[in-house]
Amino acid sequence: MIELLQEIELQQDQAERSTAQELLRWASNRFGSRMAIASSFGGDAVVLIDIAARTVKNLRVFTLDTDFLFPETYELIERVQDKYGIQVERTRPTLSAAQQAARFGEALWSREPNLCCQIRKVDPLKAKVAELDAWVSGIRRDQTPSRARAKKLEWDAHFGLVKLNPLVDWTTEQIWDYVRANDLPYNALHDRNYPSVGCTHCTRPVQIGEDPRAGRWVGFQKTECGLHAKE
Ligand code: SF4
Prior knowledge:
The mean pLDDT is 91. The longest helix has 17 residues, at 113-129. The protein has helices at 2-17, 20-31, 43-55, 71-84, 97-104, 108-111, 113-129, 172-181; strands at residues 35-38, 61-64, 89-91, 134-136, 153-156, 161-164. It starts with a helix and ends in a 50-residue tail after the last helix. The protein is built from 8 helices and 6 strands, in the order ααβαβαβαααβββα. Strands 3-2-1-4-6-5 form a 6-stranded mixed sheet. It is α/β, with parallel strands linked by helices. It has a single domain (2-202), classed as Rossmann fold (3-Layer(aba) Sandwich), CATH 3.40.50. Bound molecules: iron/sulfur cluster. Iron/sulfur cluster (SF4) binds at residues 66, 68, 109, 113, 116-117, 120-121, 198-199, 201-202, 225.
C-alpha cells in the first residue's frame, strides 16, 4: 500500500502534463482489467469512453443504476454499448425502490437526499471499487468548487484505490467540440436544457443564465452525490 501511494505521488506531476489519452494508456498498462471507468452518461462520460476505447485494452465501464435514471440515459447506455461493442456493468443498490420506501418512507430524496444518495450511489460504488485497483471519472475542475482541486491522478482515500480524472482540465466547450467533431452519441436531455443529468427525482432543466448544475437537488445546499473526494 505504501509503495503504491509513493508511486502515485511520483507519477502525479507527469500525469498533470499528460493528455487524457496518454494518462489512460499509462493506467491501462499499469492496472489492466482492474481499472474501470465510472460513467453517469453525460456529455463528458461519452468523451471519456471514446478516448478510452481508442486507447485502453480490456475497456471496462460501469454505471451506478439508481433505478431512477431518465429513459434518455438508459437509451444512451444502449447506444454506447452498440457503438463500442461493450457491456456496461450496471451497479445496483442493495435496496429496491420499494424496499427503500418501506424502510425509510416515500420519496426519501425529497427529505434526506444525502441518505438516498448513500444508499443508491455511494454504497454501490464502494462495493464496486472493492474489486478494482483504479477507477476513472469524468469530473472536471470547472464543474463545482470542490472539483476545482481534483488532480488527474490521485489516491482516493475515501474509497481506498487509485482515481484518475483524465478530463479534469477540459472545459465544457472542449467537451462539446469533441462530441461534435467525432459525432458521438449523447444524452438527448442535453438538448432540452439539462446540462447536468442525474436521477429523475433530483434533476430539472436550467434557465438561461443559471449555473449548469442549478437543476440538481433544487431546494437543498447539496451539490455532490458523495462519490468524489474533496467534497
Ligand atoms: S440523486 Fe436523488 S434520487 Fe438519486 S440517489 Fe441521490 S437523492 Fe436519491
